[in-house]
Amino acid sequence: xxxxxxxxxxxxxxxVYRKAEIIYDITFFFANRFLGKGDRTxxxxxxxxxxxxxxxxxxxxxxxxxxxxxxxxxxxxxASLEELLIDYTDYLRVRQLECWSQGHPRYESMRRYAAxxxxxxxYNDVIxxxxxxxxxxxxxTLIQQATYMLRRLIDRQQQQFLTEGGIREQMTRARLDxxxxxx
Length: 183
What we know:
By secondary structure, the protein is mainly α. The protein has seven helices and no strands. The protein has helices spanning 15-34, 40-62, 67-94, 107-115, 119-127, 132-164, 167-181. Helix 4 (107-115) packs across helix 6 (132-164).
């Protein structure tokens, strides 16, 4: 007899998970390189970056038995990355460094690099050469891209819930189908 639980998970295949992994690595590097020893912001930033990445994974794995948990954890990932975004923008603001936005001469090239496949293989080498302002702006760009992707993922998860239902509905359908077949 085939099981009624669908094979789900597969978070490592999600582009947003890979982006969150890069955000975590860059944040770990940034916090330890540019923030002073003993600064509580180090732990806050690293934990927010970790939470973004880990909640994508946990939500994906939980999706086998709970669409609700999947959606909630995906939203927690997004919220954690939004918190991290504030830390980076605060860092730039209080140090009177520039936060690059549309119209800044380096904004578009940073946005393209952050969206490229190339970043997956060379970001460690790249960040080793960047200033604090450049690294923070790269992280901000990646976070903005990741939160956009997470909003779209949440929309898709909601749609899947509406069309497929939750685990209880799937269990009931499986049980009814089983009864029909074994009459």
